[in-house]
Amino acid sequence: MNRMNIVITGHVDHGKSTLTGRLLADTNSLPEGKLEAVKNMCAKNARPFEYAFLLDALEDEQKQGITIDSARVFFKSDRREYIIIDAPGHIEFLKNMLTGASRASAAVLLIDAKEGIAENSRRHGLLLSLLGIRQVTVAVNKMDMVGYDKNIFDTIVREYGEYLAGLGITPGHFIPIAARDGDNLKNPSENMPWYKGKTVMESLDSFEDEKKLEEKPFAMPLQDIYKFTANGDDRRIFAGTVVSGTLNVGDRVTFLPSGKSSRVSTVESFNTPAKTSVSIGEAAGFTLETQIYVKAGEVAVIEGKSALKTSNLFRANVFWLGSKPFETGKEYKLKLAASKSSVVIESIEKLIDAQSLDKAEDRNEIKRHEAATVVLRTSNFLAFDSFAENEPLGRFVIIDDYNIAGGGIILNAIERATLTTRVYSEQEIELNAYIRKHYPHWQCKTIKY
């Protein structure tokens, strides 16, 4: 049975956890006794039962009534299995939402019918767009709070539909719901006979597996190399998680970006029967007939069958969450699959305002909660793909001061020959000249300009 990752997102208090909890309860997807245990806990503490409590396991979350971290829940319909990611909606936890959304290929975005389209509703729509998530269902929640008014629903459909269209997203469905009462979640609502569309459950099952990664060429980011010396075992096991395709014993693999290659001798997997192949989603390893030296972070592919790009310059969409601006010329850390590298902004091509979607004024920094199309330059060559071709190898996060400060998707690689020369500041040039003059014996690389 197929599996799909879906993110559930929206502004704070618009009902994401309630929706997820109700879906789990209505489809008997909870562990045995879980629902009764939560209800008993609420009764003992003289608190009204909320379906959101099924997900809000942290004590602080229940005290504050908001979801602080991303929670993963497992769910099965007649068509397939799901991993539903309940992403936080509060603006202070947008970083967590980015982490949750980055694992999703489709989304359910909630809007409160009474409150209407909030600032974060637009911001989350923009973030989904920048992450390349095009399959979206918009659930207009709390319809019971507005008397199941069709006119209110139609207004939100019109206004938010126009906004998403500007982002290149055409929602598969707009669905009026009352998550707490289960209206239009699994079964059609008797309170809204004017609505003839799909339920939330039906909309989830209507999502298509757009990118069949199992059908794409084999790719496995190398997480580590293990060597065991006990009992004369001198094998090197090249380990990682397969992100696309299948590898078989006898295949000749190439590691990118180094270009080193050898033939697969064995497939190794912990605590499983002997294998001769490994496929997408499996964490495993393999040994080689000829021992070669490669570093963690490279990507193993089958020789001659990969379309991965190798470069240190690429165009990307980014969304910035750091407290300090994302500045051109400043060095950050970039994490892509298993690789890490220093990175700088080569240029900002387009800066987008989350509210109007207009191109903002030209400047050399991206402020908090802003989005942009940029050209990034890394300090070393990386193996990657565009997000459109291979999601796991086209997504990245940016780290500033040991914190995840932004993320995005790769649009395309730029050939090495188009690298621009860095413009050094006067202070850097003066310092470099001073070092060369007064410390000529220092064996260090100096700036050439």
Keywords:
single chain; disordered C terminus; 6-stranded antiparallel beta barrel; 19% helix; 449 residues
Could you describe the 3D structure shown?
By secondary structure, the protein is of the alpha+beta class. It is built from eight helices and 22 strands. The strands form five sheets. The protein has a six-stranded mixed β-sheet, sandwiched between helices. A six-stranded antiparallel beta barrel has the order 7-8-13-11-10-14. Strands 15-20-18-17-21-22 form a six-stranded antiparallel beta barrel.
Instruction: Please state the structural category.
Output: alpha+beta
Mean pLDDT: 81
First and last CA, distance: 59 Å
Largest sheet: 6 strands, mixed
- Proportion of residues in β-strands: 25-35%
Number of strands: 22
Cα-atom radius of gyration: 25 Å
Tally of contiguous helical segments: 8
Share of helical residues: 10-25%
Shape summary = globular
- Low-confidence stretches at least 5 residues in length (pLDDT < 50)? 57-62, 417-426, 443-449
Strand order of the largest sheet: 2-3-1-4-5-6
State the order of secondary-structure elements, H for helix, E for strand.
EHHHEEHEHEHEHEEEEEEEEEEEEEEEEH
